[in-house]
Amino acid sequence: MYRITAFRVLWWTVNFLLAASLVCLALGAAREWSVRQYLHGFSDAVVPASEPPEQKVEAILNWMKAGPSRAEADRPDDLSPRNPENTLNYRQLLSVCGSATNAFLNLSRSAGLESRRLLLLRPDHRAKHVVAEVLVDGRWIVVDPSFRIVMRDGSGRTLTRKQLQNPEMFHEAIDAVPNYPLDYNYDRYAHVRLARLPLDGFHLRKLLESILPGWDETLDWSLFLERESYFVLVITAASAFLLLTLRLLLAWYADHRLRVPRFHLRQHLLRATSAFLTTPEIQ
């Protein structure tokens, strides 16, 4: 009797949480769709659709450098740097490396470019600067949205992060940029900074590298980590999937182990649909 009572409590709790997660999933999907529509409209106005990738990158940087007048927030700290509507419209956020890179990534992705963020790290693994990488002609070239530049050598050729690890190429790339900090080098970098977690990230980086080598480059983390609407959508979808799986396991346990009656949603829906669609017989 105790097992049956505990099961019923767990069963209805899971059902309630599943229903709540499905509602949150629907709201999250609507919000992400709205953000994508907003970004598509924004990128259509800024980026020429017919231009090659490198020209699209330059068009975004030119808009960031000399675009229309931007709003000034009285309290910029209250603005979410992971909301594209904020990063694209407030001058203070377009002046900070992290949120400026977010603005660039959102626009470039909406313009059809493959892009991702790149964290430059200090020796203690704290981030000192944030830039972007864009896939152009099979190479991940480096773009610095906060300084509005594509990293190039003295001949004007675009550079990758591996090439920027060469001190001579790095100095060539920043020579023409006034006041570019020399310590923004590429000795240490990451796409995901696990050191922000307690206990040195629980040593997750070593564990993940042993299980899935190159995981931080193989998987696309930028959109998940830097757009809050997409983050909420993924989390709610994962929660709904886990709760649905748990519900199926509980249903199997009730039918094959406890052998107690339960509410069969699918059967009730089928009966209700059949009753609604079937023409009643007139006696």
Structure keywords:
single chain, 283 residues, alpha+beta, C8orf32 fold, 2 domains, five-stranded antiparallel sheet, 13 helices
Strand and helix layout:
Elements: H1 2-46, H2 53-66, H3 84-87, H4 91-94, H5 97-110, E1 115-121, E2 127-136, E3 139-144, E4 149-150, H6 161-164, H7 167-174, E5 189-190, H8 198-201, H9 204-211, H10 215-218, H11 222-226, H12 228-258, H13 265-277
Antiparallel strand pairs: 1-2, 1-5, 2-3, 3-4
Helix pairs in contact: 1-5, 1-12
| Count of domains | 2
* Widest beta sheet: strand line-up: 4-3-2-1-5
Distance between the termini: 47 Å
| CATH-defined architecture of the largest domain | Roll
CATH class of the largest domain: Alpha Beta
Count of DSSP H/I helices: 13
Poorly predicted spans: none
- The shape is elongated
Classification by helices and strands: alpha+beta
Query: What's the CATH topology label of the largest domain?
Result: C8orf32 fold
What's this, in brief?
This protein has 283 residues and is an alpha+beta fold. It has helices spanning 2-46, 53-66, 84-87, 91-94, 97-110, 161-164, 167-174, 198-201, 204-211, 215-218, 222-226, 228-258, 265-277; strands at residues 115-121, 127-136, 139-144, 149-150, 189-190. α1 crosses α5 and α1 (2-46) packs antiparallel against α12.
Model description:
The structure is a single chain. This protein is an alpha+beta fold. It has two domains: 1-46 and 228-269; 49-226, Roll (C8orf32 fold), CATH 3.10.620. It is built from 13 helices and five strands. A hairpin with a 5-residue loop joins strand 1 and strand 2. The longest helix is centred in the N-terminal third of the chain and has 45 residues, at 2-46. The protein is elongated and about 80 Å long. The mean pLDDT is 85.
